[in-house]
Specification:
6-stranded mixed β-sheet, 44 strands, mainly beta, 5 helices, 619 residues, elongated, single chain
Length: 619
């Protein structure tokens, strides 16, 4: 560290020693060990602060970052490295250039990358201005964990597989900042630190391929089910008359794990026609321990706009649309040789498809593995369809080169800029292509010389759809005795957001007893609260995103209101007249004057009279 920088740093240290430390929890938590390199910092608002000087230092190297920040939070997406320890603090800067108030020094660490992280990550193509900015979250399925990379291939996040029984296969990034995925037989929702916040119940123990969360806070998933059914004509002569067929149940469960909707393939598909003879022919387990792989479904998508569920059934090369309310099968699309009733006459020529989604325009987007067709060339397909005349057509496709053919796995995601992110399954490749099929980003991942299988991926702006702090414009005074001084009976609160999610926020103002006084919904970053009728006392402001109550932030403050507790007649003095007025109000059951609620329990009673009398005697 240079001398000037060192002296500047020591001056700050001296300020830290002589100043009072902040009391509330900061982010990141002091001493935390993080598994990501994008870090959100949050600290208490300092009264009268015009801005803050933020200082971040990497231990052992002397590297230091200094920033001037206008709000009491910030998101740092660079400078922070793996396997490193950092210290940080903030100093409040004032308009009159008075001595800054500085927080105490906090520290956190970034864990080393695990030894199971891929050892070879290459970016083969990268057009910065044509590709969608952000972090790509994906599962490295063959390595049994999920992680995140920036567009240059730098690791940004990983989910420690030691937190799970075997692995975590990423399927969805949520707008509350959590992630959904699955392991053998189980579905999960995890937070950014990789800790499990939801797990499917023990009675649903055959989860596979896909789990997704809806805006209603329910989960759709696929679970296997087995029934003994007749042995079709393609069966080996050595097999019994009945064999175990493995089908699927598409389920919706709530946050308590209770099933609220289900659809069983055995109940809606015709078993006499709706099977693929290939999987009957290769089934030869006389013991019946193994199952005939009948459906092998791999995705379920709930479309809220149409009130429909779309499922991808791989071994039938079929996409099925289901009416959610009635559970009626609306149509099947795909290989007609395995279909009792043909809906769409035109052949779209897809096979063994994965990851069916509904786009904002109502079209379907999915990964066509194109297995068992000639030539075997995997592709991404967007399909437009019309149910009134059962017509369908491919309106866009991207055909992968022969070396990226993948017989299983794969996903296509339409990005915000109109490009499509393609995860090419077992090949170790992921591409971003434009609507004109120009490659603008190309990732290749290997480990120990082998391609890493990647099933699904998502491109997000950062790891933080939700990251905010609270501040109040009228927050004044010393740190130890801060207060809020309303202007014309109003205070202005600010939601200082560093997140990318758009959301409605809910806020509640509570008194010292926890009673809700004011509550409302807001859209935006600043809102006014009318406190003209509130007495001087302690209050707390609670704010949270409507879809993520667990992200609530609370701001406790002392209000210098226009009403002085005990001054019943508003003459600026406490005396026997105030006692008389308060007593009369209590006798008449009138709670309309908030100045009389001295103990802030929400009502006027004898306890308030006792407190008022003692205040008068003390004066």
């Amino acid at each position: 560290m240079e001398l000037n920088s060192y002296m500047s740093y020591m001056k700050k240290i001296m300020l830290l020693v002589i100043c009072t430390s902040l009391g509330a929890e900061m982010l990141p938590e002091n001493g935390a060990i993080l598994n990501y390199t994008q870090v959100f910092f949050r600290w208490d608002q300092i009264p009268d602060a015009e801005s803050y000087q933020f200082t971040l230092q990497k231990m052992g190297t002397g590297e230091e970052l200094e920033l001037n920040v206008l709000e009491n939070s910030m998101l740092q997406t660079d400078f922070i490295d793996w396997n490193s320890t950092y210290t940080w603090f903030i100093c409040a800067l004032y308009a009159d250039d008075s001595t800054p108030f500085c927080s105490e020094i906090y520290s956190f660490g970034i864990s080393p990358l695990p030894d199971y992280f891929p050892d070879e990550i290459n970016i083969l193509t990268y057009h910065e201005y044509l590709s969608q900015d952000g972090v790509t979250i994906m599962d490295f399925e063959s390595l049994n964990f999920s992680g995140g990379l920036d567009r240059e291939g730098n690791p940004i996040w990983f989910a420690d597989k030691e937190n799970f029984e075997e692995r975590f296969v990423f399927t969805q990034f949520l707008n509350n900042g959590n992630m959904v995925g699955f392991g053998p037989g189980k579905g999960y929702e995890i937070d950014l630190d990789g800790y499990i916040v939801f797990e499917t119940p023990p009675n649903i123990n055959s989860v596979h391929h896909h789990i997704t969360k809806t805006s209603n806070n329910t989960y759709f998933l696929i679970s296997a089910t087995v029934e003994n059914q007749y042995c079709p004509e393609e069966c080996n002569d050595m097999l019994p008359d009945e064999i175990p067929w493995q089908g699927d149940i598409f389920r919706e469960i709530d946050q308590d794990g209770t099933e609220i909707w289900s659809w069983n393939t055995f109940e809606y598909y015709d078993l006499t026609t709706d099977y693929n003879p290939y999987y009957v022919e290769i089934y030869n387990d006389i013991s019946g321990v193994l199952k005939m792989d009948w459906t092998h479904s791999n995705s379920v998508f709930f479309d809220e706009n149409s009130g429909s569920v779309f499922v991808s059934v791989r071994n039938l090369s079929r996409i099925t649309k289901i009416d959610y309310a009635s559970k009626e099968l609306i149509w099947n699309m795909g290989e007609t040789d395995f279909m009792n009733e043909i809906y769409f006459g035109n052949d779209l020529n897809f096979s063994q498809q994965h990851s069916v989604q509904v786009l904002d325009n109502g079209n379907l987007l999915f990964f066509d593995n194109h297995r068992y067709l000639s030539p075997e060339l995997s592709r991404c397909v967007e399909v437009s369809y019309d149910e009134s005349n059962y017509s369908a057509e491919i309106v866009w496709e991207y055909i992968l080169p022969a070396e990226m053919f993948t017989g299983s796995r794969g996903e296509c995601d339409r990005l915000e800029n109109g490009n499509t992110l393609i995860t090419a399954g077992r090949t170790g490749h992921a591409l971003e292509v434009t609507a004109e099929n120009v490659i603008v980003w190309h990732l290749e991942v290997e480990n120990m010389g082998f391609d890493v299988t990647m099933y699904r991926s998502a491109r997000i702006p950062s790891l933080y759809p939700i990251a905010f702090s609270l501040s109040i414009n009228e927050y004044k005074g010393d740190v130890a005795e801060a207060y809020v001084e309303p202007i014309n009976g109003m205070i202005t609160a600010n939601i200082n957001s560093s997140g990318w999610g758009e959301d409605v926020y809910e806020y509640t103002l509570k008194d010292v007893s926890g009673t809700e006084l004011i509550s409302d919904s807001i859209i935006g970053t600043a809102f006014n609260i009318d406190v003209s009728g509130l007495p001087s006392s302690n209050y707390s402001l609670e704010v949270y995103p409507a879809h993520a109550p667990n992200k609530m932030q609370s701001f406790a403050f002392n209000l210098h209101g226009s009403i002085s507790l005990g001054d019943m007649n508003g003459d600026g003095a406490l005396n026997v007249l105030d006692v008389v007025i308060l007593a009369n109000l209590i006798l008449s059951g009138d709670n309309s004057n908030p100045a009389g609620d001295l103990n802030q329990d929400g009502s006027l009673n004898i306890l308030d009279v006792v407190i008022l009398a003692n205040l008068i005697l003390d004066n």
